[in-house]
Write the structure tokens for this entry.
Amino acid sequence: MTKTSILNRRDLLLGVTPAATVMILGATAADGTITEAATPTTNNVPTFFTPVEWSFINAAVGRLIPSDGPGPGGLETGVPEFIDRQMELPYGHGAYFYLQGPFQPDAPATLGYQLRYTPRELYRSGIAAANDACRTAAGKVFADLAADEQDRFFASLEKNQVQLSGPPAAVFFAQLLENTREGYFADPLYGGNRGMAAWKWIGFPGARADFTDWIDQAGHKYPYGPVAISGARG
């Protein structure tokens, strides 16, 4: 296996570096070698995703936010559960999307979303198409690939170098990456960021009523820990 350097995972998650870097470099071990794919650590039973889809989501989150970095991993913080819950909410059903044609898939991003898929449909079609592409290329579904193979596949998705039978590869990857980031940093009320672990890692105060005294104190660690919407304290 090839070796590569480790980037600051905090920057990767916040989108400071290109998303492809999340896939290629963010899942390396301390010695620079690529680790094996993480396994699900939650006993949550999904309400939307099928077992095959759930395996894909867990494997994907395990590569997007791996468990071997300086902060908590996406699986440990419940990101798959967050994504699953969102699919049963108005967001998942496309309530906040303009879904009336005509669609222009090649239109610039400034014109907004240009597909007919709701998030539910995008995941259902995208996962099936991604697994088909993996079977064609490697004889296995995505969740059964080795970690380095998963990373390469994700990099090719982001660059739209894979022809999926459903939605455009880059659109599907962008949806997955966006929801993974959201689940990692959202309030635990929504299923992810379990134990406010991501907030603790970056020093975010959460839903505290007043932390204005610390806004201008650059370089000083916030000393009180986060508070969730529920009132739980980190």
User: Anything to note?
Assistant: Helices lie at 9-14, 19-24, 51-64, 79-87, 119-138, 147-158, 169-185, 197-202.
